[in-house]
Amino acid sequence: MPGYFNFFPTTSYANNIVTNVIAKVKFNQSVQENLAIFYPYTIIQGERADQIAARVYDDPTLDWIIYLSNDITDPYYDWPLTQEQFNQYIISKYGSISKAEEIAFYRNNYASDDTLLSPSSYNSLSTSIKKYYSPIIGFNNQVVSYQRKSLDTVVDTNVIVSLSVSSNSGFIVGEKITQNSNSGYITYVGTNNLIINKVTGSFSNSNITGFTTNSTASVTSSTTLNQSIPLSEVSFYSPVTYLTYEEEVNESKYNIRILDRSYIGKVQKDMRELFRWNRMRLAM
Fold it and tell me: How far apart are CA 218 and CA 60, in angstroms?
């Protein structure tokens, strides 16, 4: 992307004049806000910005316009990763793929619920549940049914539980513990008790095992300290793993917008004027 840096101002570094690659630039606001001059584009896995620029603008050096059109300030980390790059990134950040499969948070699951309720079914719901639905209006402004409301609610955990155990037996904070199909993550380790969150299932008076340390202990009692998601509302939330979250972030980067080629000349002119003004200002 040498064409991009041709527009950047220079700066002094170690007695040398170099390109100031950390200068942050944006399109003219009138261009940025005019959605009519952009059109959507889905990046093909492994496709680079210069390849897109070559295809749509017949000039690979105009990749910088692709970046600026999408507020991409770091072409190496803000661009979507290939599957191989993504796996390497996950391992580098979380230690392993399996570690990234642990629960990160709980999110309102309206996007995966296409349930429709009749007005009578909706009216029979409790007030605490009605908040999860919105009306669908039909002919003559009459409510014909109710659908899940778009609520982007996120909570760190569903419940916090204290487990009385025979001994801590080497458990560590952050470790996942399991008991058959039940699981949770340790937030506190005491001599004879563990506090866990992000709990799946209900722990009974039997043995638990640590996922990291392989420690074991016998549970003698279980006490709920805080029910972050009320039991009556649990079905409206789903756990999201770190891996799923990272996949969603990476997938979102594949959808970009492309500036109509008829505006290329104006943008180039605006960028030259912007950097010329910056040079003049810095020289004062």
Answer: 64
The region, left, alpha or beta by phi > 0 then psi within -120 to 50, assigned to residue 71 is left
Task: Give the sign of the dihedral formed by CA 96, CA 97, CA 102, CA 106.
Answer: positive
Count CA atoms within 13 Å of residue 134 on its CB side: 7
Domain boundary among 128, 154, 180: 154
Averaged pLDDT for residues 173-196: 96
Identify the helix (H) or strand (E) that includes residue 207.
Answer: strand 207-210
* 243 in any annotated domain: no
Domain identity same for 61 and 38: yes
DSSP state of 259: E
Residues 6+ apart with CB under 8 A from 266: 31
Summarised one tens digit per residue, pLDDT across range 127-153 is 999 999 999 999 889 999 999 999 999
What is the Cα–Cα distance from 122 to 120, expressed in whole angstroms? Answer: 5
Residue 273, both tokens: 């004027």
CA–CA separation, 255 vs 40, rounded Å? Answer: 7
Q: Give the number of domains in the chain.
A: 3
Q: What is the CA radius of gyration of the chain?
A: 27
Give the C-alpha separation, 17 to 7, whole Å.
Answer: 15
What tokens appear for 72 in the block? 């991409």
What are the distances in angstroms from CA 115 to CA 129, 147, 240, 271? 14, 6, 21, 50
In the prediction, which pLDDT does 18 show? 39
**Helix or strand run (H / E) with residue 188:** strand 182-189
Contact 199, 187 (CB under 8 A): no
What is residue 125's DSSP assignment?
S
